[in-house]
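Reopening this one. Same input as before:
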Amino acid sequence: MSTYENDMIVLNIVPVSFPKGSPMHLTCLTLFVPIIFLMSLATLDADDFERAPIHYSKATPNNAVTELQNRLTAGEVKLDYHPERGYLDSLLKTLEISPKSQSLVYSKTSLQIARIRPRTPRAIFFNDELYVGYCQLGDVMEISVADPELGTVFYTLEQSETDHPQFVRQTDNCLICHSSSRTDNVPGHLIRSLFVNAGGQPMFSAGSYVVDQTTAWEKRWGGWYVTGTHGKTKHLGNLIIRDRSVPRPVDNSKGQNVTTLDDFFRTEHYPTPHSDLVALTVLAHQVKGHNLITRANFTTRQALHYQETLNEELGEDPDHQWESTTRRIRSATEDLLEYLLCSEEAPQLSPISGTSGFAEEFSTRGPTDRQGRSLYQLDLQTRLLKYPCSYLIYTDSFVKLPTPVLTRLGQRMNAVLSEKETDEKWDHLSTDDCRAIREILVATRKQLPKPFIQPFLSENEDQLR
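Same output, byte for byte:
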C-alpha cells in the first residue's frame, strides 16, 4: 500500500517471502521492481552525485591540478610570481594553456564579483580540460578541471606570494551555480549571456541565455567582450546598457566586428589585448560537451550501482541486466552522441575570424591522419569544425568513460557515419564528412579507447593491414 507524506509517495511494503522462480515470486518481481527502480529515479536530483557511487565532495580527485600540486610539493616544479598578475602567467605556462585563449567577461556572475566590471573584466583561459579564471587584484585565481571520475572539480589558488602555493578544492560555493539544470544536473561549467549595465550588474529582468554550440548567434556573448570579424552574423558582445532598462529592439551595431578593445578598458593589464571570437566559440562548444560527458559517466555508474543493489536484494545473478539500466545508459549516450557530432549546431551566417591567432594555434593540436587531417581543424566559414566530430573524444574524461557508454557510443557513431541512420538530426553530415571522420578515427585509433573504436576497426580491417 502507499501513503502520501509531504507530497511524496511512501510505500509501506510488508516483507513476504516466496520461493524463487515460483509464480508468486515472478509476480512480485513484475509488480514491485519497476516501482522500486522508479523510486530510485525519482530521488535523482541535482546533488545525487553526493551519494554512492560518486560521492563527489568526499572523493579524492585525480586530475591535472592534483598532479601539479604533487609536483609543487615535491619541488619538481615552481610557479613564478608576477608583481601585477600574480601566478597567472606561470600557471598558464605550466598547465600548457595558451594566453591566446583569453576570453573576457564583464558581468558580475562569478566568485569575485566585486572585482568585475566593464573596466576590469574577468579573464578566462582554457585548454581541452582546464579552465583558469583571473581577476585584476583578485584574492585568488579560480581553476576548474574536467576530472575523469568526478566531472568538473573546482579549485582556488591564493594570489599572494609564497614558497608553497596551494590549490584549495571548492565544493559548496561553486556548486551553487555549477550544478543545476543549466549544467545538466552534474558539477559542470556554464556560459551565460546577459544584458549588463555600466557597473557590470546583470539586468536579469531582460532575460538571459545559456550558451553552447546550439545557441543562436544573436543570443550569444551578452556581458562578454568579443574581438573578431563575423560579417552579417550578429551577437550581443561588447554591449553595455546605459539606461535603466534594455531598449527594444536592441541596437548593438557598435559592438559588431570589433577588432580592438582599447576604447573599453586598459588592455595592458592582461596577458593579451584580445577576447578572441574563435576562442569564445570553441569555449562554448566544449563546455557543454564536458557536461554531457560527465552526465553519461554519472548516469552509467549510478544505473549500474542501482542494478547491483537490486540484484543483491532480489537474489538475482550479479550479472543480471535490467532493461531500465539499459534505457538510462542509452539515453545519456544518445544525448552525448548528438552533441559530439554537432547535431543542431546554430547556423553561422558569415565566416568568422579572431584576432589573437588562437584559430591557427588550435588547428595544429591533436593527432592527424596520413593526409594531415585532424578533428581539431576549424572550418569557421559555415560551422566551427571542419570535420564535425568533437575533439573532446581524445580527452581523459572521454577516454575513461565506463565501458558500457564507450561501447554504445562506438556502435552508434559507426552506424551514423556509415550512413545507416536516416534521422534528420544527421542531415548536416555529408557523405564526405562521414567518410573523412571515419578515416580520421581509424587513423588515430591509438589515442582512442578500445570499446569505442572497435566497431570502426571491424569494418576497416583491410585498411589496417
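So the earlier flakiness isn't reproducible anymore. For the record, The first strand starts at residue 2 and ends at 5.
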